[in-house]
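R.M. (postdoc): so does anyone remember the format we settled on? I'll just put the structure tokens first.
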């Protein structure tokens, strides 16, 4: 066999190894609150919470009201807040259902984009 053939084979093996290493390959379980990116990332909140926004008239009275208001009116997206970490969620419709609630999410985390590919989401009781 020629040297060119071996180099081609080595290139293919390296590409397969890179894709296998870079791609998330196992589900994880995350527990936290479904909130909005505006509050969770301190865009208009000093405490990474809904406290400041809920003092404003017209936003609502609960964390769910605030999260939905910020997503609908202020350009936010639903996120999962886990202590000091904030994860993007690929399943926005499902997150809307649980806005302001503590949830358990099973899914794949893409570390490059910090996005969870949600497989299941359920409220924590």
């Amino acid at each position: 066999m020629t040297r060119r053939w071996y180099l081609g084979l080595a290139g293919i093996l390296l590409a397969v190894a890179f894709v296998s290493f870079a791609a998330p390959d196992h589900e994880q379980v995350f527990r936290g609150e479904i909130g909005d990116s505006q509050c969770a990332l301190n865009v208009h909140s000093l405490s990474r919470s809904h406290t400041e926004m809920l003092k404003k008239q017209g936003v609502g009275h609960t964390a769910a009201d605030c999260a939905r208001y910020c997503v609908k009116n202020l350009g936010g997206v639903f996120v999962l807040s886990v202590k000091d970490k904030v994860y993007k969620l690929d399943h926005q419709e499902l997150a809307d259902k649980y806005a302001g609630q503590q949830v358990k999410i099973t899914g794949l985390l893409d570390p490059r984009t910090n996005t969870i590919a949600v497989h299941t989401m359920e409220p924590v009781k």
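R.M.: ...and that's the designed sequence above, right after the tokens. Also worth knowing: The CA atoms of residues 74 and 125 lie 30 Å apart. The helical segments are 3-22, 37-40, 51-54, 63-73, 92-97.
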